[in-house]
Sequence to fold (396 residues):
Amino acid sequence: MFDAIQPAPPDAILGLTEAFNKDDRPGKVNLGVGVYKDASGKTPVLATVKEAERRLVETEPTKSYKPIDGDPAYGACVQSMLFGAGHAVIADKRAATSHTPGGTGALRVAGDYLHANHPGATLWLSDETWPNHPSVFEAAEVPMKRYGYFDKATGGLNFDAMLEDLSKASSGDVVLLHGCCHNPTGVDLSAEQWAKAGDLFAQKGLLPLVDFAYQGFAQGIEEDAQGLRALAAKVPELIVCGSFSKNFGLYNERVGSLTFVAGSADTAKAVQSQVKARIRRNYSNPPAHGGAIVSTILNDDALTAQWHGELAEMRDRINGMRSLFVQTLADKGATQDFSFITRQRGMFSYSGLNKDQVGQLRDKHAVYIVGSGRINVAGLTEMNMDYLCEAIVEVL
Ligand code: LMR
Fold:
């Protein structure tokens, strides 16, 4: 049976890491996958995570299964981070959260839920978006369309195109939005634009699905949640797919969340029972460790304060690298204006490099970036900056 199987194409992002690992050229640089690196080029385990793990090793009472939708204490932490402690959707029990294996797991369960319960709904994706979004929702058999988002001419947001396209959506359609640090463009909605988008969704009966994988990487935990909270003030129902891969550095623990906000506590319970049915037939119940780390940190004031400091350090280093990147490109002889890179937010720089230039960077210089021209700024260091910028100037 297997003899006729043809190889699948490599993954647009994780496939780069596979190719990078096989590359034996010295000085190779992997700026593909969105993983934070410190100034020495390492992806550290946060000190707060180490401390939480130490406590867990000493106190964890059992390895028995978690509930299908995970530990309620974890769900409570997720909801407080998303909406702020005591927010009305929490107080009124209108939110239900599942602990999922990563943000990707949350997206897939959301897709399975939509396919099973809202089969007529079309999912609208921004143009561009994370390349795995269409793959995940195609696998879940959710029909998709695109809405205008990135304006190539200005390197900013084409909000008019976004509103115009979404005004063509039908009631009951779902709109995928990036909560902050849009992947790959780094271009986010302003507070006013979130509110305006919320008005359109309310008026047309559209359901927002917020992919919130980078909370804390733009300005801070509270600041980055303003868009989501503005939506929650405008529409009665929404879905949030969260991830602690980046802000807790828990990439390989696969610790994500899927939150449904419904119009009432009873509706939230009914929806959650459907979500649990999808989870059970997919991965049954979540891995415990990553969620326990997050709950341990967020239920301890001192550890939480320390973690905010660690997060700020990551965010500040990335922003420092953005400025240095723009400066070094100019120093190395780039004549075009790259200052837009300092206006982008989050882990990525949407460089404007085309597919051919991306290919040359990889073939000639062993520099790996995503085909869309997306560069992981969080992987830049003072050590690899000169080499990268010289290579970019050469391919421009
Ligand atoms: C990325 O966009 O690089 C990250 O979200 C990691 C991934 O799974 O693609």
Remarks:
- The longest strand covers residues 95-101.
